[in-house]
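Minutes, project check-in
Item: structure for the 446-residue chain
Input as provided by the requester:
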Amino acid sequence: MKIRYKLYSAHAFLIVSLLCMVIEVFTLKNIYNKNLNEILLSNEKNLKLYKFNMMLEHLIMPANDYLISGNKKEKEGFIVESEQIWIWFQNNEMLFPSNQKMYNEIGLELKSIIALGNKILQSGPSNLSKPQNTKLMYEMDHKAYKIHDIIKIYIDIEMKKQGQLSLNITKTATLINTIIYLTISGIMLLGAIFVIFLNKSINQPIEKLTRAFKGVSQGRWSNVNLNKRTGELRTLAVEFNNMVEKLREFYDEMDSKVNDRTKKLNKLNAQLRTLAITDGLTGLHNNRYFYEMLKLKFEQVSKKKNGKLALFMIDIDNFKFYNDKFGHPAGDQLLHKLSHILKKMCRKSDIVSRYGGEEFAIIISDITPKRALQIAEEIRQKIESSKFPFYEQVPGNKITVSIGLAHYNSAYKEGKKLVKDADTALYKSKNRGKNCTTVFNDGMKN
């Protein structure tokens, strides 16, 4: 009877230990889900902020275009875009629940941009040459970049927060496994203690149980077969087998969920990174990524002896005429098809970006000036011979581009100067009659 009471006591201890373990694991599971939900919410906020950046870029373009062309549609477009972005901004105040100051600062800058745009619209069309209008356009761009920088700071804070939450998730999963293993080890220790006090008649089955406990603690989900035994020991073996089965199912389920959530999280992070560096219309890299890679490539080439680096600035000729005559959807199709040509004609290691509007930039490393000029001409000729929508109705019955080309040398101290020189060469191509390539030299004035 004493043995029976001891076995009953051991049975009760096993059940209590298992219940405690299950309760603790479910508690940690709730913490895990909470952290994961916070990460998903943070990702959703970041996606909305990227959308706000795109809306801001669409807001600025109609005011600048109206000042150049005088098209009333651009004026109406600015009014519609300003109303939409302001309503969207007011309805999404919850994106900054912990930073009201940042929300207010963005709101003030957005009001200033809308006010500057209205001033430009009031000045009338075709007044780009007036210094005050140029200043207003510059101020609008400056405030837009300021908002971009504020949002980037907030996104960086959210990304750091996600990193900490991911670390918490990993720690929680590790703690769950540790609790399971410690509980099983504790149960195994109890079985070992009872082996010492039990008589030889039940020593063998107890040893079987002990080996089974040890196997489970090491991840081997094996059952105990005591079919030849009766009474308490067989009951104990049955309970143990049931426990092992439940633990196996629970562990498999947890492992599957952790793997699924981890894959989803990695996929979301990859999507966010792609959105952050990709131009939504053309699929090329955007302006921000262009400058990041220009800085990196410039640092690399400046450390090499006789380093080679070329920068192309490409602008579509008569694009304003094309856009006004055939509409923005046709202009978007033209940009998309031309971007595909640029990407197809460049190497995977080349950085092909949409610099802004109808202007593109290409960074090519380890290339001689002669070969760079050949590639530029190949690109120009390919575009000239391609059949774009409505190409027969534009001047010259073809779509063409002007290209400015600048090469790195030891006199350059920063990448922005390379951009400036390539841009100077581009405008030289425009002045030469368009549809040509110009290589920058020291005789050109910026």
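Outcome recorded: The first strand starts at residue 309 and ends at 316.
No further action items on this chain.
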